[in-house]
Amino acid sequence: MIDGPYSLLTLLGALATGLMAGVFCVFSVMVMRALAALPPAQGVAAMNAINSAAMAPAFMVLFLGTAVVCAVIAVVTFVLWPEDGTVHLLLGSALYLFGVFGVTMVANVPRNDALMRLEPGAPEAVAYWPTYVREWTLWNHVRAAAAAAASIVYMLALI
């Protein structure tokens, strides 16, 4: 079992990744389903508004702050190479940094950018909307699962 300040950092990592898992899960199981049920022009307009709101400090601090915590855990683990929990700590960090942050950058953000360039009622937006919902939600499922798994393995490092 890890102890001292390192255990507090790990606990923070577990809590932050768990919170992000909840955010992504809610989006996958409720928000995207609700948006998909709207007429395409309304769904596009609503998702663009959500994506704009996501750039606010409250979400960005949580999303990026969690990435920083995971990166710090990974670096400290490599430097200290603790007797207990090393695999869990490195795996938790990798799950969030690659499975959440990386997936966001290479899968979700490009789709958000493409949607933002479309006028909500335009034929291109209406045609793109079903593809966007399907693909964006699939990658969001990956983010939710990766964040949940990161939280679990961080917790396992604590026991």
UniProtKB/TrEMBL annotation:
Keywords: Membrane, Transmembrane, Transmembrane helix. It holds the Pfam family Anthrone_oxy. InterPro entries: Anthrone_oxy (IPR013901). The chain crosses the membrane at residues 6-32, 53-81, 87-107. This is DUF1772 domain-containing protein. It comes from Streptomyces vulcanius.
